[in-house]
């Protein structure tokens, strides 16, 4: 059997390549760790807990949630109080506003298992609350800590309008897209 010279050269080249690959390092330095900047941030350290509130504001395209660190879980009243303070400077720079009229300075929220009752003050007529304002209120309250552990989209929000007298409240939920949805 005769061997072709090109076949032997190819075999030698392949063997030489394998030998070089086996004897060279993979690029990891033996110098040890090198300082590359500050430690990572933004992710809680293991064993620590942090709380945040989901607050809903309006933008040109509808209603959008923002997350604010709070240090502890907020109940619906505390979340609504935070909502009524309006967007922060950074949130305003991102185009977020509120559609809740200034006369609604005090919304009252009480909770029971899986339900939040919100009383809207007498000064605020139904016509002053547009769909975006109602969605802001409903979704902010639904995403707060409500007894019963239901997901926010299953929390019933009953709106009591003080100016309507003893009429039945209207019941809504926060839909998955962050807007108020009627409960039938």
Please name the defining characteristics of this protein:
single chain, 184 residues, alpha+beta, five-stranded mixed sheet, two-stranded antiparallel sheet, 4 helices, 24% helix
Query: How many domains is the backbone divided into?
Result: 1
> How many angstroms does the end-to-end distance come to?
90 Å
Report the radius of gyration as a whole number of Å.
30 Å
Helix fraction by DSSP (H/I, runs of at least 4): 10-25%
Widest sheet, order of strands: 3-4-5-6-7
List segments where confidence is low: pLDDT < 50 over at least 5 consecutive residues.
none
Tell me the fraction of residues in β-strands, as a range: 15-25%
Which structural category do the helix and sheet elements fall into? alpha+beta
User: What is the residue-averaged pLDDT?
Assistant: 79
Coarse shape: elongated
Order of H and E elements? HEEHHEEHEEE
Largest pleated sheet? 5 strands, mixed
Tally of DSSP helical segments:
4
Compute the number of strand runs. Answer: 7
Short description:
This protein has one domain. A hairpin with a 2-residue loop joins strand 1 and strand 2. 24% of the residues lie in helices and 22% in strands.
Describe this entry's structure for a reader.
It is a single chain. This protein is an alpha+beta fold and 184 residues long. It has one domain. The chain has 4 helices and 7 strands. Strands 3-4-5-6-7 form a 5-stranded mixed sheet. Strand 5 and strand 6 form a beta hairpin. Helix 2 crosses helix 4. The longest helix has 19 residues. It is elongated and about 100 Å long. It starts with a helix and ends with a strand. The mean pLDDT is 79.
